[in-house]
Design a protein that fits this description.
GO terms for molecular function: oxidoreductase activity; zinc ion binding. Its cofactor is Zn(2+). Helices cover 26% and strands 27% of the residues. It is α/β, with parallel strands linked by helices. Strands 3, 4, 5, 8, 9, 16 and 17 form a 7-stranded mixed beta sheet that branches. Strands 12-11-10-13-14-15 form a 6-stranded parallel beta sheet, with helices on both faces. Strands 1-2 form a two-stranded antiparallel ribbon. A hairpin with a 2-residue loop joins strand 1 and strand 2. Helix 4 crosses helix 5 and helix 4 packs across helix 10. Bound molecules: zinc ion (ZN) (2 copies). The site of one zinc ion has 6 residues, from helix 4.
């Protein structure tokens, strides 16, 4: 089969690779669409340590089952499916209580952090276990289904946050996950959603997708503006979707006393944390990792239009041209959001 292989850091080669063998509990999927994730782009130069070459990346995908193992019961050949980015074991302490995103033996598709190498879906075929499969709703396109993974990450963060009807939410970072979180917060019943970014084009998109306000962190004093918009109190909840000191502090300073912060971004391994402010203002803090069973809800909401992923997909291209698209994303070409590759 043909695959896009990261042969060494910053070097992709589109080449012939052996077709994956399937275990008895696995299916072979003919990949129809696979999105390039920000973590793939960060990983290609070695800086994240999670894409050690040689590797076939790709964990945001959809396709058709073309072969199944003897023990696969609930899916047949020809089924249109998408799948979790995480292969969880189903048997450890965490899996047994439903926290599959925290699985002790988790392997992420298209990732090789050293302990394992799990080839992903930038290929004609990928093998995955039945337990991580999800059926695609009627009418959902392969491209839409390939975008369910980032949607599920946004949903998981929103689900972890205690939201009351009409709450005011601040979302720091209006990239892919931030823009999906804004839509999820709208569905969850927030009254006012304030998007924060330094890129006006992203804020414009945020406003189009349901944010009430878009604040430029490089132009205005965000916490002051948020207080002005919230009876001088501050926001009830905040989502941080960047992952650096400035963004974390902006999110915390924008909250009212007793507010709740959910951290999703994790660009920097450590940040400066305003300990006294968090303690004395009694801010609750959540970390949100990946997603945990939100796929079916997300697929439904993409299918019925409550979550708009189409507007975030800026390009679709053949997998053979993947190397050039990775480079354009790596160079942060303006206007590029989600790029989907088709084998
Ligand atoms: Zn991803
Ligand atoms: Zn497990």
């Amino acid at each position: 089969m043909k695959a896009l292989v990261l042969e060494e850091y910053n070097k992709f080669v589109y080449k012939e690779m052996p077709e994956p063998e399937i275990a008895s509990n696995e299916v072979l999927i003919q990949v129809k669409a696979c999105g390039i994730c920000g973590s793939d782009v960060h990983g290609m130069d070695g800086s994240s340590g999670r894409r050690i070459p040689p590797l076939i990346m790709g964990h945001e995908a959809s396709g058709i089952i073309v072969k199944k193992g003897l023990d696969v019961r609930n899916f047949s050949e020809g089924a249109r499916v998408t799948f979790d980015s995480t292969i969880y074991c189903g048997e450890c302490f965490y899996c047994r209580q439903g926290q599959i995103n925290l699985c002790d033996n988790r392997r992420v598709l298209g990732v090789s952090p050293g302990e394992y190498r799990q080839h992903g879906a930038f290929a004609e075929y990928v093998a995955v276990p039945e337990r991580i499969l999800y059926r695609m709703p009627e009418g959902l396109s392969f491209e839409q289904a390939a975008m369910v993974e980032p949607v599920s990450i946004a949903f998981h963060a929103v689900e972890l946050t205690s939201i009351s009807l009409n709450d005011t939410a601040v979302v720091v970072g209006a990239g892919m996950i931030g823009l999906l979180a804004i839509q999820a917060l709208r569905v969850a019943g927030c009254g006012k959603i304030i998007a924060v970014d330094i890129d006006q084009a992203k804020l414009d998109l945020a406003l189009q997708l349901g944010a009430n306000e878009g604040l430029r962190a490089d132009v205005v004093d965000v916490p002051n503006e948020v207080r002005r918009l919230t009876h001088n109190r501050g926001a009830d909840i905040a989502l941080e979707v960047v992952g650096n000191t400035a963004a974390v502090n902006t999110a915390i300073s924008s909250l009212r006393k007793g507010g709740e912060l959910t951290l999703v971004g994790n660009l920097a391994p450590t940040v400066e944390f305003p300990l006294q402010a968090v303690v004395t203002r009694q801010i609750a803090v959540n970390g949100s990792c990946s997603s945990c069973g939100e796929y079916p809800a997300c697929l439904d909401m993409i299918a019925d239009g409550r979550i708009n992923v189409g507007i975030l997909k800026t390009h679709t291209a053949p997998l053979a041209e993947g190397a050039a698209w990775f480079e354009r994303l790596y160079n942060k070409e303006p206007g590029l959001m989600k790029v989907i590759l088709e084998p």
